[in-house]
Design a protein that fits this description.
This is GGDEF domain-containing protein. The chain has about 200 residues and is of the alpha+beta class. The chain folds into two domains: about 40 residues, no CATH class; about 150 residues, Alpha-Beta Plaits. It is about 40% helix and about 25% strand. The protein is built from six helices and seven strands, in the order βββααβααββαβα. It has a four-stranded antiparallel sheet with strand order 5-6-4-7, sandwiched between helices. Strands 1-2-3 form a three-stranded antiparallel sheet, with no helix packed on it. The relative contact order is 0.14.
């Protein structure tokens, strides 16, 4: 990485990646070099913002709301630019507070849920805990509308064992751009969908 200074080029002053390529003649002899610069100001600013935020949920190590917001905003920009769809799932642990009180705030249940959620999605997806008993999964790129439903079904199945702890699971889904244009809109739709589906999902867990 280098920095383009005003003294070198009065019009520009920005951090950049420098690449140098050799230009050869017909005899494969080097005639000259060509330098190219890529402005990385936005990337550095983005990384600086991330470093300044508290990004992780303490008990589970999952992303927290701050990191989820950053990644969702980045995914939305990419989705808009390239005409892609993305998905968001809202997962709520019904009855968690009562069970948690019995176990004196033991984090083992939360860790178990976190492990199951992470194992149910792709490495490129984001799993976040945003409240005491609410988790969100961001799917930054989905193949079609059914993709989100398939992931929801996979997650519901992976959390079946919670039924032995008297904890139910309700899941709602949302898709960009049909269900929302930003993170608040997607979360709101997923939460509403979760309440609509709650009886069915609880009966299947």
């Amino acid at each position: 990485m280098c920095c383009i200074k005003e003294s070198a080029c009065p019009t520009f002053n920005f951090p950049a990646f420098l690449t140098i390529s050799a230009v050869h003649d017909g005899d494969e002899q080097i005639m000259n070099d060509v330098a190219g610069f890529t402005n990385i100001s936005d990337q550095l600013q983005y990384e600086k913002r991330l470093s300044q935020l508290e990004l992780r949920d303490g008990p589970t190590g999952l992303a927290n709301r701050n990191l989820l917001t950053e990644r969702t905003n980045q995914a939305l920009l990419q989705a808009e630019r390239y005409g892609r769809s993305l998905g968001m799932l809202c997962i709520c642990l019904d009855g968690f507070n009562e069970v948690n009180n019995i176990h004196a705030g033991d984090d083992e249940l939360l860790k178990l849920v976190a492990q199951q959620l992470v194992a149910s999605v792709r490495a490129t997806d984001t799993v976040a805990r945003i409240t005491a008993n609410e988790f969100v999964v961001l799917l930054p790129e989905i193949e079609d509308a059914d993709h989100v439903l398939l992931v929801a079904a996979k997650i519901a199945k992976s959390l079946d064992e919670l039924s032995t702890l008297n904890v139910g699971t309700s899941i709602g889904v949302a898709r960009y751009p049909t269900d929302g244009q930003d993170m608040p809109g997607l979360l709101r739709h997923a939460d509403e969908d979760r309440f609509r589906n709650k009886p069915r999902l609880l009966s299947s867990v």
